[in-house]
Amino acid sequence: MASLEQLQFLDRVHSAARLANHVWPEYAACEAALETAWGTSQLYIRGNNIFGEKQHVDPVFLTLKLPTREMQAGQWVTVQADFIWFPSANESFVMRMKTLRRLGYPEYANALAASTGEEFVTEVSKRWSTDLERAAKVLAIHSAHKDVLAAAVKEQV
Model pTM? Predict the structure, then answer.
């Protein structure tokens, strides 16, 4: 059972995803829950960075240097990385959609063309993260909270 804080977080990020015209805001909210540890990660708290987006060569927003865990050669290692500091969660969702459209990866094109949220998560997760279990984790969050997300959709329509 989700805590009140988790339900409030899902509602908040679902609203931000919808306002940013995310193609699958319900699933984006579940991705946000995973990526930010339900809004408790330092990257989210200090930088409104939901998806772990690293700084661009030509920065649009400020840089936030933080440690992160990445899968390298089959092992989790901690590395320092330059992340984007976003002025709001909404900006993080907007930039994420721009990134998916800008980069020419087939997985992102497939995700953007997906006919279901499950397909979107499966395709985007093939490249977005070094965690090979990312899609399954996001889909498990969605499955556990689909009633709450469906209610949020009805309220926001």
Answer: 0.88
